Amino acid sequence: MTGERGAAAAQVGQLPPLGGPGQLPAERLVAPRVPVPGPVRRRLAEACDQVDDAPEARAEAGRDWWPLAVRWAVAGLVPALPEVVARPRTLEEVAGVMAVCHDARVPLTPAGGRSGVCGGAVPVFGGVALDLRGLQGVQDLDERSLLAEVWAGTSGPDLVEALEGAGLVLGHWPQSLAISTVGGWAACRGAGQASTRYGTLADLVRGATVVLPDGRVSRLGGHGPRAALGPDLLQLFVGSEGTLGVLASLQLQLRPRPAAELRRAYRLPGFAAGLEACRLALRAGATPAVLRLYDPAESARHFGAEQVDPEEACLVVLDEAEPALLEATAALLDQAVGAAGGQPGDPAWVEHWLASRNDVSALVPLVQAGLVVDTVEVAAPWAALPALYQAARDAVATVPGTLVCSAHPRPTRTPGPRPTTRPAGKPSWSRPSGPGGP
To answer: What are the counts of helices (DSSP H) followed by strands (DSSP E) for the chain?
Structure first.
């Protein structure tokens, strides 16, 4: 799953433009805005070399890939605008900006690549947007212990490239790899596409340097492979989404570049049978990097309605490890699929998945055409999944204008998988023509 830079970047697409040169778009969210007075701006400029209040910088820092924000952008609206954007390039600058904001009681919203889809990077109350992408690069690489200390603003492709040169991988492959940052992965407690083998980002973080709201710097974890010292403050920050402080750098657990690869595709007689095949495989000890099950609707969309039966679910498997381990994994998979009533599928499905798995380039054109497209992720135990899947689809189907609601579960290394439901449909409201729209 290496070599991501060019292909991933080409598939992301672009957010709709906002306003013209030198113009500020209107704000969509209604909330009290906290100004940044002149004296505070001067202190910020003393703490950080790059402090920007240009309209273009403020507009871009006022949104992320939240589907509602994408829709609002079509109408020329931004969720909310910061007063200024600070772009620190050192740990000292991060601490300085945070200390100034803390002292002046100015809200601060940290952000990386702004690839999130929940509006977490939106500066709802104005104030300062802290753009952390200037903190870039691998600070230290311990090839013997398989550990790397990485600045939080390092982009996914840059980290992949740096590790490839040393014959190493992190194993975290989010769909947003091309536009996201290491700090964002940790702040949002991300789970990548290969998490069944490598684990989620929370499993891969060994330590972190954090900056607290008042500008103090603290080191959490990173002292050894294990500690029995009471509450794990590191894991408190992983997933905190900037509410407790800023993750400035992270120590990450690495793996050697895999020696071999396994690819499998299967057909299952329905979504419930596919879930059972996945459950049996993991229960037997198989942990392939990718274990991606598509329900009948997504199977037809991905692989062609003429290639799969209307009620079939398609299972795509990709693993990477030592050959002996892959051989055992393949045997366990074949056994689990057979027990669930499945049979081999088209091996070309795996190649298709690899080529298209990060492709969200159609999102903006669909929104511009008036469609509403969103993804909802939930985590549940195996016993609850069939009923949860059906209940979610039934509920979405009651929304006027719904075109399709489909799902694909992605098991992690924990006992239960993370099913993802993708509803899409025509909006049940009219297209907005101004700030009062949806």
So the answer is: 16, 21
Q: Which helix (H) or strand (E) holds 308?
A: none
* pLDDT tens by residue, 51-73: 999 999 999 999 999 989 988 99
The verdict on 366 and 273 lying in the same domain is yes
The domain total for the chain is 2
* CATH number of the domain bearing residue 217: 3.30.465.10
Same domain, 216 and 274: no
Q: Residue 90: is its pLDDT beyond 60? A: yes
Do 351 and 420 lie in one domain? The reply is yes
- Which ranges in 284-322 belong to alpha helices (H)? 296-303
Beta strand ranges found along 11-170 (DSSP E): 26-27, 51-52, 77-78, 84-86, 108-111, 128-131, 138-142, 147-151, 168-169
Q: Are residues 352 and 421 in the same domain?
A: yes
Contact 272, 293 (CB under 8 A): no
Same domain, 277 and 413: yes
DSSP-assigned letters across all residues of 328-354: HHHHHHHHHHHHTT-EE--THHHHHHH
Residues 222 and 275 in one domain: no
Asked if residue 214 and residue 303 are part of one domain, the reply reads no
- Domain interval for residue 207: 135-256
Residue type, 345: G
What stretches of 357-431 show up as alpha helix (H) in DSSP? 363-368, 385-397
Rounded Cα–Cα distance for residues 167 and 165 (Å): 6
DSSP type of residue 286: -
CB within 8 A of 323, min separation 6: which ones?
Answer: 259, 260
Locus of tokens 């990097």: 289
Cα–Cα distance for residue pair 117/35, rounded to 1 Å? 26
DSSP track, 213-262: TTS-EEEEE-SSS---SSS-HHHHHTT-TTSS-EEEEEEEE-EEPPSEEE
Does residue 417 sit in the same domain as residue 300?
yes
Check whether 278 has a pLDDT greater than 50: yes
**pTM as predicted:** 0.89
Dig out the tokens for 306 from the structure. 């003429």
Going 334 to 340 to 345 to 350, the CA torsion angle's sign is negative
Burial class of residue 204 (count of CB atoms within 10 Å of its CB; 0-12, 13-18, 19+):
buried
The pairing of beta strand 77-78 with beta strand 26-27: parallel
